[in-house]
Amino acid sequence: MPVNAESELWLRLEAVPGLGPEAVLRLLDAFDSVATLCAASQTTLAALIGVTRAAALCSTEADAAVRSGLDWLAAEDAHLVPITDPAYPKALQSVPGSPPWLYVKGNLATLSRPLLAIVGSRNASVQGQRDAEAFAENLAASGLTIVSGLANGIDTAAHRGGLAGNGSGIAVVGTGLDRVYPARNRALAHEIAHGGALVSEFPIGTPPRPGHFPRRNRIISGLSLGVLVIEAALESGSLITARLAGEQGREVFALPGSIHHPLARGCHRLIRDGAKLVESANDILEELHLPLTTNEDLPDPATTSNLLALLDNGPLSLDQLQERSRLTVDNLSAMLLTHELEGRVASLPGGMFQRLY
């Protein structure tokens, strides 16, 4: 069957009002192909999905959503990947409630790479965003492709770090792929599509709606070997993603923070509940049984006291500390975090650090 003809059948199936992913998957179990399903009699379909939905599926009237989908698929880098397609990610295929299809803009091969999700607060601190970018860059340079949700804050920083690390990445979004939300990430979305892929289960033309984002979280975790949470409130979408990851048998990692920082509480709860505490990219690579990074700039033991000595004369920013210590951002961030947890250093508003004793 021509690709466009099969895509049209999937789009027809998707356009049936009230036919959710679970119902579609049940239908696919009852028929050997989407073509057989769509060719079934209205009476046969009615017994499975009801009279109204069967009538909608059997209708020969042109549907605007189907036409929009076909128009979007005309682009060379636009794909509709049903769960029956070999290109559908195997990791996601095994997840209960996996979407029957994925819209993908970009390089389909990106979906089959080793993937790691990085998620966190939309209202992340300056330090949290730096940590997300540094972790993502180091992990991407070590062979992982970074997955996130294109939201403000930690997601944005993780995408940028992943692109810097290996020029690739995956953004799973809660809209149709003809839209970018938030709009400020339009250029970032284009960059991700060029080097990696944008992914959505929602039809072309779908606007952002609150209920879409928890749904997209199961895809973020389902695609990935594990999920790293950086800065999260106790009630947040990031903890939903982490919970889903645990239910899906994925690894859950969390970056701890100051006990005085409200966005550290979600990560601390995850750690208490069994998530792996991480201080460096190697903590994640080791847990995933991947080759560890080697870095000639790793500090010797004397560096710890030297770093504290730099703060003797007052607070300094991360950039100032990096310039004076000559450490990488990843190493510096890990050391500052250790000092903060042990009560020697405090993080201040504006991304500044102060020695306590």
List descriptors:
357 residues, alpha/beta, Rossmann fold, Arc Repressor Mutant, subunit A, nine-stranded mixed β-sheet, three-stranded antiparallel β-sheet, elongated
Outline the fold blueprint.
Blueprint: H1 3-14, H2 21-30, H3 34-39, H4 42-49, H5 51-58, H6 64-73, E1 78-82, H7 90-93, E2 101-106, E3 115-120, H8 126-141, E4 145-148, H9 154-166, E5 170-172, H10 186-195, E6 197-200, H11 212-223, E7 226-230, H12 237-247, E8 251-255, H13 265-272, E9 276-277, H14 281-287, H15 302-310, E10 316-317, H16 318-325, H17 329-341, E11 345-348, E12 352-355
Parallel strand pairs: 3-4, 3-7, 4-5, 5-6, 7-8, 8-9
Antiparallel strand pairs: 1-2, 2-6, 10-12, 11-12
Helix pairs in contact: 1-6, 4-5, 8-9, 8-14, 9-10, 11-12
Classify the beta-strand content into a percent band: 5-15%
Helix content: 40-55%
Q: What's the alpha carbon Rg, rounded to whole Å?
A: 23 Å
Class by alpha and beta content: alpha/beta
CATH architecture of the largest domain: 3-Layer(aba) Sandwich
Sheet bearing the most strands, described? Answer: 9 strands, mixed
Helix-strand topology string? HHHHHHEHEEHEHEHEHEHEHEHHEHHEE
> Which stretches of 5+ consecutive residues score pLDDT under 50?
296-302
Number of structurally distinct domains: 3
Shape descriptor reads elongated
- Order of strands across the biggest sheet? 1-2-6-5-4-3-7-8-9
Average pLDDT works out at 90
The CATH first-level class of the largest domain comes to: Alpha Beta
Number of continuous helical runs: 17
SS elements, strand count: 12
- The CATH topology annotation of the largest domain reads as Rossmann fold
